[in-house]
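Colleagues,

Please find the record for the two-part complex below.
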Amino acid sequence: MHAAIRAIEYHLPENTISTADLAAQFPDWSAEKIDAKTGIECRHIAATDECASDLAVAAAQKLFTSGACSPQDIDYVLFCTQSPDYFLPTTACLLQDRLGIPTTAGALDFNLGCSGFIYGLGLSEGLISSGQASTVLLLTAETYSKFLHPRDRSVRTVFGDAAAATLLVATNVREPLIGPFIYGSDGAGGPNLIVPTGGSRQPRTEASAREYEDATGNVRSGDSLFMSGPEIFNFTLSAVPASVDRLLAKSGRTLGDIDLFVFHQANRYMLDHLRKRLGIPPEKFYVFMKDCGNTVSSTIPIALKSAMMEGRLPEGSLAMLVGFGVGYSWGATLMRSTEMTSLLPSKSPGLISDP
Amino acid sequence: MIRREFLMALDEILELPPGTLQGPEELEGFAHWDSTAVISFMALADSNNGVRLAPREMSSCETVDDLLRLAKVDV
């Protein structure tokens, strides 16, 4: 048995902030400049009392309503977030209860950002191919907006909140439909994308809440998210092309064998540069961030869902998925597209087999 | 990419009229020399000269010519 993606749904919070709104708040950056650098017109922002788990619940409920599966079918919940409800208990356990998933299901949180979906797929394939689970609910959800200082344009123009629910089911096929996987980690880059306080290492204090202005006019405090854009760009140039090469070598494929490339939707400028550097034709490179921004671990499933809805991933096509970011952490895999029951809600859930 | 083309590209990055930059200008004087401009210059050096610039090295550059030297452009 191997894992197959049967359905993907996502949820965006109701509140939005447009590029025009941001340009009005930051007169040094025009709407045109923000658009050229980010490719984002609109970001969805969670309400004050709305947690990442609330967004995840909404995405999962869409999955159940679509008929792709029922809560009773799920035997493992994976929740990827860096915005848990509490230090403890595990948010995935709370989600099991809120979603009405059987108490016989396993549930765990894992703390990753932009690489999280790839790791979630790897964990799902491991759980299913080893017989530990047959129907995995992979939830990715983030509310980075709560970490952003309102006067830090470098991050407010980029990040949006969202959740995605991906249903992975055991599939009776000889060869994996998702894989092989390559991974990478480099904690030396940790300080370049960080919320420094609030954990065990550096508790929040009056001093950490003190605001400061950087050399280019962005304001933040030790309690807010800091991102060094140039360092992240440098990391990306080093990690992504090498990851693509490693994955192609491991799978015995060439770039030409890939029908669609779906990378973490960091920002349009970075993606354009990576695409050109890798020599990927624009028609094979999927970009979907205009209406939601960089939603961290949910960008790849949201883009995948959109690509599926547009018919860009017909049955049998091969997609390369690459996630990279905070940690530093990165990962990549190949996904063979199967018939998606999310597009055929009348089909009953269950195991799918080789024809 | 030759020096003149790099300077023209840097004019655009810094939102200056074409032909403004000559080389000796101090970077600190430009309002648009911010993180997005740094990233744009890193992309320029990578695409055109195959040079990967480290942000820490770039932060020690004081003038446009310092940047060009780092990007291995003949000054």
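Chain A touches chain B at residues 28, 33, 37, 154, 216-217, 228-231, 233-234, 237-238, 269-270, 273, 276-277 (CB under 8 Å).

Comments are welcome before we finalize the supplementary table.
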